[in-house]
Automatic annotation (TrEMBL):
The lineage of its organism: Bacteria, Pseudomonadati, Pseudomonadota, Gammaproteobacteria, Moraxellales. GO terms for molecular function: oxidoreductase activity, acting on paired donors, with incorporation or reduction of molecular oxygen. Residues 1-169 form the Luciferase-like domain. To bacterial alkanal monooxygenase alpha and beta chains. This is LLM class flavin-dependent oxidoreductase. Pfam families: Bac_luciferase. GO terms for cellular component: cytosol.
Length: 257
């Protein structure tokens, strides 16, 4: 999966041809996640020659346009994605608010909620999506994934230590500073104030941090609560070896070993 292509920054035909190329090279391995957030600041948006008002109004039309590019061309269709046509790349709608939930339901598309950084409206968005879902040529029933930040290590204590890199990154986001991942620290005290600590903790409401058993238990609780079909994981660990090890141990969570 793409994780997220922010459509305000890209022309639909370009996206369709890029993912059509990938689908041609790697059949049945490519999915396309589409989001409507610009994902950047106003200066960069202008550099991309995309206007905010245009993207807000245009997003549903752009999604429908991309869906058509992946099908067989219609009679009289003047613009054809090559490659792209007839690849039938699976498309997800991404979101952190209710708008994308409603659109995904209307179009009968799978829906992925960005609870790895914006968990507040997760339950409401999933409920809205499921209640308003219209069966389509893509799905006959709702299909949902949720984003979950994870750090898995040999012990809960080590995982909490490694997670301080992620906490520092969010703290930088709150302060408008660098988002570069920093080495972990033994304590966050002195690095944040009480209000900032609360903001970071709210950001990571869905985070699962700990040993294999701790993370397995936490993920099961999320599954019991939201009944999602898939999880999509992020892992902001500073050391590359430790990050890969975290994903390796995450697979143990899945396998039950």
């Amino acid at each position: 999966g793409s994780g997220g292509i922010m459509l305000p920054n890209h022309a639909p035909l370009v996206v369709a041809e890029q993912f059509g190329t990938l689908a041609t090279l790697y059949p049945d391995r490519i999915e396309l996640g589409l989001g409507r957030a610009p994902g950047t600041d106003q200066v960069t948006m202008r550099a991309l020659r995309r206007g905010h008002q245009e993207t807000e109004d245009q997003f549903p039309r752009d999604v429908v346009e991309i869906l058509q590019y992946f099908k067989a061309p219609q009679v009289g269709q003047k613009i054809i994605a090559t490659p792209g046509q007839n690849t039938h790349v699976p498309v997800w709608l991404l979101g952190s608010s209710l708008f994308s939930a409603q659109l995904a339901a209307k179009l009968g598309l799978p829906y992925s909620f960005a609870s790895h950084f914006a968990p507040r409206m997760l339950g409401q968005a999933i409920e809205l999506y499921r209640e308003n879902f219209e069966p389509s040529e893509y799905l006959d029933k709702p299909y949902v994934s949720m984003g979950v930040p994870v750090v898995v290590a040999d012990t809960d204590e080590e995982a909490q230590f490694l997670a301080t890199s992620a906490y520092q990154r969010v703290l930088g986001l709150i302060r408008g500073e660098s988002l570069k991942l920093k080495p972990p620290v033994t304590s966050m005290q002195g690095l944040w104030n009480t209000a900032e600590q609360l903001s970071v903790e709210n950001f990571y409401t869905m985070a699962q941090i700990g040993s294999v058993e701790t993370v397995r238990s936490g993920l099961q609780k999320l599954l019991d609560t939201y009944e999602v079909d898939e999880f999509i994981f992020t892992c902001d660990v500073y050391d590359t070896v430790k990050r890969l090890d975290s994903f390796t141990q995450l697979m143990q969570v899945k396998s039950g070993n």
